[in-house]
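Supplementary Methods, section 5.1.

A reviewer requested that the exact input to the structure prediction be made available. We therefore reproduce it here, unchanged from the version used in the analyses.
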Amino acid sequence: MEQLVTSNFKLGIIAGGQLGKMLALAASNWDVKTYILDPDEHCPASTICTNFTKGNYSDYETVYQFGKKVNMLTFDIENINTDALLQLKKEGTIIYPEPEILKLIQDKGLQKQFYKEHSIPTSDFNLYETKAQILEAIESKKIKFPFVQKLRTSGYDGKGVEVINTSDDLHKLMDGNSLVEEKVEIKKEVSIIIARNTKNEIKSFPLVEMEFNHEANLVDRLICPSNETELIQKEAADLACKIITKLGMTGILAVEFFIDKSGKLVVNEIAPRTHNSGHHTIESCITSQYEQHLRSILGFPLGSTEIKIPSVMINLLGEKNETGLVKYEGLTETMSIEGTKIHIYGKKETKPFRKMGHVTVLDKSIESAKLKAKKVSETLKVKSWN
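The structure derived from this sequence is encoded token-by-token as follows.
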């Protein structure tokens, strides 16, 4: 691996969304050749990678043939054909994070069982195969209101999740293999990014706080560092370390937590990839999550995760009633706000609540950063030409 920056080493990245784009940009600093697989030929990463392949990453043959082109595979999405990855690994392709771990994390039911098996705090849950089984469990009082239903596979960015507060919400129940869990009374939602390299070196980034757009069920604003106690921050880092160690995973892992009303940490979900809750690290930390992921999978020493400056990250989401070719209003005014770093992903069309970019606001004072972030949110809008 020491010769990779002067060789024809080819890193395959499955999915070329904004995460794949930012990973490819980080790889270009080391002259690592990046090969992207994505069904959209105009995906964000398509214009900056070394080689682009158009194809469906849930299709066995497409993933298998793509894997044959590269020296190593990684990914920026979970919904990948793991049978193809497992066959490629069997034939000698290096894949990080490991396909077996991706297969476990793809299934929210298996995720929950993993937490239970390893005494990792999470909300109480049961698994059901059909909507009818859930209704029967409600009737027999095995399920009590309020609760959360999550489809076991294919959900992302709040899709495949329904909050059922009372019987009036039962029309929202989804049919299919589901995880039903107790609804946690949430005081705060936080996240931690952790990395483990091929030599079992582990480092975590500082805990961050997440504020949600509840209509879209997406992160609206992220604050770093968290104002939680040192005890909570250490506990979150220790739990993340336990999870990545028990998984035996190589690469970046995002661990999302609830802090309940009693102040207890509860693991919500994990993602075996670079993550929305780590965008701020590009500017606010010594090492970005993207560089750290590359260091992890290439077997390099992990970089410092120290904060250089406090930050607030805002997701740029498509406006609620806007669909069509995208335009950004308020860019010039936003750029005049000191400490703002604007990232436009390059998606050609906007849709309601679609992630189109993000802005990281940097300031020595977190309170000042919050005020600037509020102004950015009021100023910079994602609209359509239609």
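The chain has three domains: 4-95, 124-182, 186-384. These observations are discussed further in the main text.
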